Amino acid sequence: MSENPGFTRQTLVAQALGHVDPINGALVPPIHLATTYIRDPDNQYRSGFIYGRPDNATVREAEAIIAMLEGAAGAMVLGSGMSAALAVFMALRPGDHAIIPTVMYWGLRNWLINDAVEWGLKIELVDTTDLAALQAAIRPGETKLIWLETPSNPMWTVSDIAAIAVIAHAAGARLAVDSTCATPLLTQPLALGADIVMHSATKYLNGHSDVIAGALATARLDDFWGRIERVRRNFGQILGPLEAYLLIRGMRTLPLRVAAACAGAMELALRFSNHAAVAEVLYPGLESHPEHAIAKRQMQGGFGGMLSIRLRGGEAAAIKAAAEVKLWKRATSLGGVESLIEHRASIEGAGSPCPPDLLRLSVGSETVDDLYGDLDHAMR
User: Fold this and answer.
1) In the chain, which residues fall in CATH 3.40.640.10?
2) Known catalytic membership, residue 203
3) What fold does the segment set 9-251 form as a domain?
4) How far apart are CA 295 and CA 160, in angstroms?
5) Which of 203, 249, 344, 360 is catalytic?
6) Which of 106, 169, 235, 298 has the CB geometry, 3.0–4.6 Å to 348, for a possible disulfide?
7) pLDDT averaged over consecutive 10-residue blocks of the chain (380 residues)?
8) From the candidates 9, 37, 53, 220, which is the catalytic residue?
9) Is 105 a residue of the active site?
10) Residues 304, 134, 167, 147: is their CA dihedral positive or negative?
């Protein structure tokens, strides 16, 4: 089925690219657990598989689906979202300058600020919603990577991928986009000019809170992509076959889950915008959002299932509300079928750019009335 370009991405992903087992006709892809493979009599590997650390058949199937979703020349899955992101930075050369957002996933932000220097990298934080500031941060001949996260976690600011791609390429740099929260269904960074897309596949791509995985997709199979592949192989970062199978299983329902999450988040954003206890709702789908026009242009079919609310009562009120909920689950992560709530400043700790009065909400598949009623009661 993957050879028929007339089918939509929703159809292709629902059927896992139409895989049918050639031996028994099974519609569900098998799990290939082998770690080693038989050589041909002349010591060649014409099957294409040599050893389990750099390659696996189930992994390849997951990568084919992600490449289709992103319109990519190639994709790879890794053992976590963090390992996927780090593989991109590890593929840079010592002395390279990289620009990253001031607001982004805190785990990667901390590594880049505190540890990237050990790899000889020069890291600079910039508000990537400010194109003038971004342009001013470019170091001619040194800047080799601009890293975006859009919408950004947990403030949900939106960066203009197409405009920043122009800036990056004019400087001879690559543009990589963490599109975890947008998912391939809402934003197509490669079509907007990005060179690499990254996902924490733990989140929406899997969607069931039972797999840790990361994914990368590339616009071109070039030397830089080859360096990323070597990082994955040499550091043993490939995803296990069972996890790859579960990731395939999760992606088959991705369009349904994302649509439900977007609809729920939009409705909750509107309701909480009029709540007496809420000082501000951060959600790019609201017309009051500073980057709403950009989000409307580069996000198709919805504005994501993530939003944050800031409480009038400050940090104490936010922590108390999170403690009082019954339906929302107090847990780290996002993108699952269950709705999660988190006081991010407590999790991120010292140096976090997250306001202490902020609660991050990941909207799942429950009914909006139930979710709103539970948090409304907690805030009261």
Assistant:
1) 9-251
2) yes
3) Aspartate Aminotransferase; domain 2 (3.40.640)
4) 8
5) 203
6) 106
7) 74 91 87 90 85 92 98 98 98 98 95 95 98 98 98 97 98 98 98 98 98 98 98 95 97 98 98 98 98 97 97 97 98 97 92 93 98 97
8) 53
9) yes
10) negative
